[in-house]
Design brief:
By secondary structure, this protein is an alpha/beta fold. It has 14 helices and eight strands. The protein has two domains: 144 residues, Rossmann fold (3-Layer(aba) Sandwich); 187 residues, Up-down Bundle (Dehydroquinate synthase-like, alpha domain), CATH 1.20.1090.10. Bound molecules: nicotinamide-adenine-dinucleotide.
């Protein structure tokens, strides 16, 4: 254990279980909300309608325009609806894209948010908001964007397609892995990180065998929640910065990029993170968590090469250039040569 640390807890009310969406009206009443706007992507309007029905007269309307990377234009359209309908709170039903829209509205209006996550991305537990203006994504940290209530309903994750589920779970694991070697890490966050990875790694094979296995789904969601707490608490390193760079440069899909880069980023840092590796050995129940992670990804049948998700061949050089131009904290120094090898392997889908 580190003998000296700072631990800053994020305020959160979390309701977890199966069928917990039914608690939504009580939660709205608890917050005194009577004119809620239900947010979703265009793909999840059926679920948003169910949530509106559940809220009854507390739902004043719905906005189904949430999309990846929280474009400012979408937020502005949603804000117009907020104003027009006299909204007093938002209910975000969906993955990180929908949660991002709710946070963007809260940042500008201070409206309370209730979030029903349906992926494992974890935005609901963080004070972070990434927004895109004219194609440029910037991330900020503000306590104003933290949701008031998060209702994890395992049943809402059952419809997440299997491959997306696996990708999203690896996205969650990435938060915990980087928390274990964060410069501002602490023993509480490490407990959450190890337990989060353990829960996901243990449940993923069961979920892959039987996507409707609610117990496995509950375990993955529980692990994802813990991993999300890690993301919200400490500073991320090479892996997250690299994914951010790649996503911004080549418009790569979020969860896929995380899943592909993670084993490579972990292998890069491995020589400098003995304590983190001890946690990960326990979580993966193996001596070599890097290979175990890659093996688990193979078993889940997800893409393992950046070239397969749209990164161009000449992208490696551009990514190195951008990553080197913005230095950031990481346990192992960022060296152009080694970073190039990492990206070449991740691009081609080679092992680590
Ligand atoms: P997403 O929210 O974009 O969802 C992907 C697609 O899956 C969408 O079409 C969505 O409607 C659909 N979907 C989601 N849940 C479903 C379900 N249960 N059943 C069927 N379809 C479902 O993807 P994501 O990976 O959750 O979020 C990615 C976004 O979140 C990125 O923009 C990323 O930057 C952001 N993010 C932010 C933070 C943060 O702390 N600010 C953390 C993680 C992710």
């Amino acid at each position: 254990m580190s003998q000296s640390f700072v631990y800053q807890a994020q305020p959160a009310r979390v309701i977890f279980g199966r069928g917990t969406s039914a608690r939504l009206p009580d939660e709205a009443d608890r917050l005194g909300l009577r004119r809620l706007l239900v947010l979703s992507t265009p793909q999840q309007t059926a679920l948003a309608t169910q949530v509106q029905q559940l809220l009854g007269e507390r739902a004043a309307g719905a906005f189904a325009g949430a999309t990846m990377h929280t474009p400012i234009e979408v937020t502005e359209r949603a804000l117009a609806v907020v104003k027009e309908l006299g909204i007093d709170g938002v209910v975000s039903v969906g993955g990180g894209s929908t949660t991002g829209l709710g946070k963007a509205i809260a940042l500008r209006t201070d409206l309370p948010q209730i979030v029903l996550p349906t992926t494992y991305a974890g935005s609901e537990m963080t004070p972070l908001l990434g927004e895109t203006r004219d194609g440029v994504k910037t991330t900020q940290r503000s306590p104003k964007v933290l949701p008031e209530v998060v209702v994890y309903d395992v049943d809402l994750t059952l419809s997440l397609p299997l491959q997306m589920s696996a990708l999203s779970a690896f996205n969650a694991i990435a938060h915990a892995v980087e928390a274990l070697y964060a410069p501002d890490g602490n023993p509480i966050v490490s407990l959450m990180a190890e337990e989060g990875v353990r829960a996901i790694v243990d449940a993923l094979p069961r979920m892959m065998r039987e996507p409707g296995d609610a117990t496995a789904r509950a375990d993955v969601l529980y692990g994802a929640w813990l991993c999300a707490c890690c993301l919200g608490s400490v500073t991320m390193g090479l892996h997250h910065k690299l994914c951010h760079t790649l996503g911004g440069l080549f418009d790569l899909p979020h969860a896929q990029t995380h899943a592909i880069v993670l084993p490579h980023a972990l292998a890069y840092n491995a020589p400098e993170i003995p304590v983190a590796l001890t946690h990960l050995r326990r979580a993966f129940k193996t001596e070599d968590p890097v290979q175990a992670l890659l093996q688990l990804e193979r078993e889940c049948g997800i893409p393992l090469a950046l070239r397969d998700i749209g990164m161009p061949r000449d992208g490696v050089a551009r990514a190195i250039e951008q990553a080197m131009a913005n230095p950031y904290g990481n346990p192992r120094r960022i060296e152009a040569g080694a970073l190039g090898q990492l990206l070449e392997r991740a691009w081609a889908g080679e092992g680590v």
